[in-house]
Amino acid sequence: MKHPVSSIFLALSVISSLSYAQQEEEKEYSQLYLGAGFSMANFSDSQYRDDDKFDSTLAGVVFGYRPLSFFAIEGREYIVVSDKDDRIKWHAGVVSKWFIPLDYHFNLFGTLGYSAIGTENHGTEWAPSMGAGMRFRNNTPLIFDIEGQYVKESSIAPDGDDGAMSLNLSVYYGF
Question: Domains, the chain, ranges and CATH?
Fold first, then answer.
């Protein structure tokens, strides 16, 4: 009689510890994050200013919520900090991030969403955006993302190819 009771107790202990570990893993991904972003954008009319350098450098704030290990929703607001291209004033966006959680320290992701680009002459235009990137983190609340993003917009160069490519670097603090 002593062995069945101890076997049941052992089985319940194992099940309880496994469910606790799973709850801790799920909690890890349910997080709010806030951070700073830096973006270098290039518009498809690359003949503007006769060089292949980035047209605009932007800096701003990024905030998001990751309720699941494979999904997050994110908002971004950037303002122009370089005056190389005087057509662009700001850039904002709302994107969904879809993660491939390889492990806690490294994830690949894709983004889909809508972005707005504010210009001096053409006002504001919302357009679809998509991107891909990598997320790095260590055992602290700090998170680092590097991402390439494409925004299909036509107000900047209405006669040429209608897109903007950007390289985004972001550092977040996860709560």
Answer: 29-174 (2.40.160.20)
Q: Please write the tens of the pLDDT for every residue from 77-98.
A: 999 888 666 677 888 999 999 9
- Give residue 31's pLDDT: 87
CA gap 50, 75 in Å, rounded: 33
Nearest CA among 121, 117, 100 for reference residue 109: 100
The number of CA neighbours under 13 Å toward the Cβ of 24 is 7
pTM for this prediction: 0.75
- The better pLDDT of the pair 24, 160 is held by 160
- For tokens 């550092």, the residue is 171
Using CA atoms, how far apart are residues 92 and 120, in angstroms rounded to an integer? 15
Read off φ and ψ for residue 151, nearest 5 degrees.
-120, 125
Residue 85 · residue 54 · CB < 8 Å: no
Q: Given this model, what pLDDT does residue 24 score?
A: 45
**Long-range contacts of 147-151, Cβ-Cβ distance < 8 Å, separation of 24 or more:** 147/109, 147/111, 149/39, 149/111, 149/115, 151/91, 151/93, 151/115, 151/117, 151/127
- Most confident residue range from 6-15, 33-42, 162-171: 33-42
C-alpha torsion 56→52→153→72, nearest 10 = -60
3-class SS of residue 55 = coil
